[in-house]
Specification:
The chain is of the alpha/beta class. The chain folds into 2 domains: about 5-60 and about 300-410, Aspartate Aminotransferase, domain 1 (Alpha-Beta Complex); about 75-295, 3-Layer(aba) Sandwich (Aspartate Aminotransferase, domain 2), CATH 3.40.640.10. The chain has helices spanning about 5-10, 30-40, 60-70, 85-100, 115-125, 140-150, 170-175, 200-210, 265-280, 285-295, 300-320, 345-350, 355-365, 395-410, and strands at about 50, 110, 130-135, 150-155, 160, 165, 180-185, 215-220, 245-250, 260-265, 335-340, 365-370, 370, 385-390. The model has no long low-confidence stretch (mean pLDDT about 95).
């Protein structure tokens, strides 16, 4: 018998060389931040975990009970490759109503989370050498999958529009070439919480139509909002036919660990995604889908209560951040992220950049957060420093205590060079 340490230390057989594509595979560096925070906590320090977009709010009881009932009823077998029919029908109805379009159940393929939609969409639609436009800063798995599968990841950025962050649509237009095949759009954006106006969505749709681009619309945060109503690009003329929606149960229903989502879009694409289900997982988790069905069709008090709690957290964080020297933060109406500009605070502390500032504040205050660089390399011309604070996994009391310490540290820091 080998010990765990011995097993971990064992190396591949001599001569093993990973496949070339492995060198192109990226990761989420937020998990490295999580490890640093955990190491600090293990030494007895209080840590305030603003780094990970997880929820410390439990899944509603009626959803859990529906899953438990499905297990007792024997729903522990394989199920249809695209997911159970009642869930596909409920998803089609829910997404259609919210986006003012019409989807059928056969345009829905249930997935083990949102991430698989990214990879399977690209496998279905992108050839090696095709160019894919993706947001940077943005979810790092976009470019990871594009490059892993042999595509060319082409970034576009975001602009500070005064009271929000806005997609740099001019940058998208400049970067379109004859090899551009796909546009990845994450309106209600991670990490900036940026949201397109109706006019901006129309302009993006016009570019997609003019250049015959397929669109992956990552709508993970479509239902996570505090005011107003979300918009989807599929509601615009000609866009439903060329767009796949990434849907996830993780955010709206506090089901991050359930790993359930869906690809919703034109049947020719969705059928290929389901064929990939056959090859990769066979089918989604059978019994968990009955919990998801209850989430969609049952009592909606849970999401409403969760949004009220998240709004309270957002407002508490904003009050402290905007009272902190050298920090400026917009008020987003969606997602559970804040993206403060900390350029002046970084300079005030004499830090050399994002990473120095992050480590300094973690050590000094226990506040753990990600920076802009955890969401892609800085684009040419960027000269501001930003943090991403996720308030989904910290209570209002923790926010006030942790960001209060953050503020006090900045206030008592001697100006650099004084």
């Amino acid at each position: 018998m080998h010990s765990i340490a011995e097993d971990l230390a064992r190396q591949p057989e001599p001569g093993f060389v990973p496949a070339d594509r492995v060198q192109r595979l990226g990761t989420e560096t937020v998990f490295a931040v999580s490890a640093e925070a955990a190491a600090l906590a293990s030494r007895g320090r209080t840590v305030y975990p603003f780094h990970l977009g997880d929820l410390n709010i439990p899944t509603a009881d009626h959803i859990v009970e529906a899953m438990d009932r499905a297990i007792r009823d024997g729903r522990t077998t394989y199920c249809p490759n695209a997911g159970i029919a009642p869930l596909r029908e409920a998803l089609a109805a829910d997404v259609s109503a919210a986006r003012c379009v019409t989807y059928a159940a056969d345009e829905v393929s249930v997935q083990p989370g949102g991430k698989p939609v990214i990879g399977k969409f690209l496998m279905a639609a992108m050839n090696a050498g095709d160019e894919v436009l993706y947001p940077n800063p943005g979810f790092p798995i976009y470019s990871s999958f594009v490059e892993f599968l042999g595509g060319v990841a082409v970034p576009y950025g975001y602009l500070d529009a005064g009271d929000r962050y806005a997609i740099d649509i001019d940058a998208i237009e400049r970067r379109i070439t004859p090899r551009t095949r796909i546009l990845i759009l994450n309106d209600l954006h991670n990490p900036t919480a940026g949201e397109c106006t109706a006019e901006e969505l129309e302009r993006i749709a016009e570019l997609a139509l003019r250049h015959d681009l397929l669109v992956l619309s990552d709508e993970a945060y479509f239902d996570v909002r505090f005011e107003g109503a979300s918009r989807s690009i599929v509601s615009l003329p000609g866009m439903q036919e060329r767009t796949v929606i990434l849907y996830t149960f993780s955010k709206k229903y506090a089901m991050t660990g359930w790993r359930l989502g869906a690809a919703i879009g034109p049947r020719p694409l969705v059928d290929i995604i389901t064929q990939l289900n056959v090859n990769l997982e066979s089918c989604p988790n059978h019994f968990a889908q009955y919990g998801a069905l209850e989430a969609l069709t049952g009592d909606q008090a849970g999401p409403r209560e969760m949004m009220a709690r998240l709004k309270g957290r957002r407002d508490a964080a904003l009050r402290i951040l905007n009272a902190t020297p050298g920090v400026r933060c917009h008020t987003p109406e969606s997602t559970f992220y804040l993206y403060p500009d900390v350029t002046d605070a970084v300079r005030l502390t004499g830090c050399a950049g994002h990473e120095d500032f992050r480590r300094l504040l973690l050590d000094a205050t226990g506040v753990s957060f990600c920076t802009r660089l955890h969401f892609g390399k800085a684009l040419p011309g960027e000269n501001r420093y930003h943090l991403r604070l996720a308030y989904s996994g910290v209570s209002t009391a923790q926010i006030e205590e942790g960001l209060g310490a953050f503020k006090a540290f900045i206030e008592t820091t001697e100006p650099a060079g004084s």
